[in-house]
Amino acid sequence: xxxxxxxxxxxxxxxxxxxxxxxxxxxxxxxxxxxxxxxxxxxxxxxxxxxxxxxxxxxxxxxxxxxxxxxxxxxxxxxxxxxxxxxxxxxxxxxxxxxxxxxxxxxxxxxxxxxxxxxxxxxxxxxxxxxxxxxxxxxxxxxxxxxxxxxxxxxxxxxxxxxxxxxxxxxxxxxxxxxxxxxxxxxxxxxxxxxxxxxxxxxxxxxxxxxxxxxxxxxxxxxxxxxxxxxxxxxxxxxxxxxxxxxxxxxxxxxxxxxxxxxxxxxxxxxxxxxxxxxxxxxxxxxxxxxxxxxxxxxxx
Length: 301
Description:
It is built from 8 helices and 10 strands. By secondary structure, it is α/β, with parallel strands linked by helices. The chain has one domain (7-299): Rossmann fold. A 6-stranded mixed sheet has the order 4-5-3-6-7-8, with helices on both faces. Strands 1-2 form a two-stranded antiparallel sheet. The protein has a two-stranded antiparallel ribbon with strand order 9-10.
């Protein structure tokens, strides 16, 4: 579906047209570029990005990782987040006001359960209404991330939710407006993210990126959060969205597995005192997110 998922991290953001992250203390974690194995990518350019957009507007729908993707894109376009902004919504103009980037949080990528409570009792607004906004946008980036537990809590219901969303788009949206659809895969978290050194091993079909977990890590990773299912669901959604909607896949799974650095990680002592210490899912360094945006830039039609 695309040739960007396999490759290696090489040092030097200048070769990508990216910038190092000045807010992150570890310069090494901020200065890497993803080099695909089977193709040559174009350096990121704000001017060319605007010329490719041609005044079109982008809507990004998904969970908190999709928000990080959206806000990184906005910052890379030298736009400052000045408009209505919170943890579930982002709206900002780019390209001298000629285009708009918006994010609406919808953890389950559903068109039905709008405003449903978070499955673990947290935020109430995690499934915002996005279907009524589609007519305002020309490019749709969809992301179904780490909220694997639906209200029914079954594999079947998780898949049926995605199928329902696809059927809605095919019936009520795409016949009336040309919308380019992209599907952003999700990145598995790192149970050992206190390791601050990137893994630079080449990833390809013969040498997939895998985790070697101890018993404690395996319990957290598989039993507590079902994170081991993420590659399975990524594969399912890549195939489904590409087949049914001809969606272009922004595949960031393998490249992100190789980056246990850059998180808000905690020491073993901190975790022993508080099992919720640290965050091995979201990245504190924007370098990884910048490279996600660069793939989107290279796939933009």
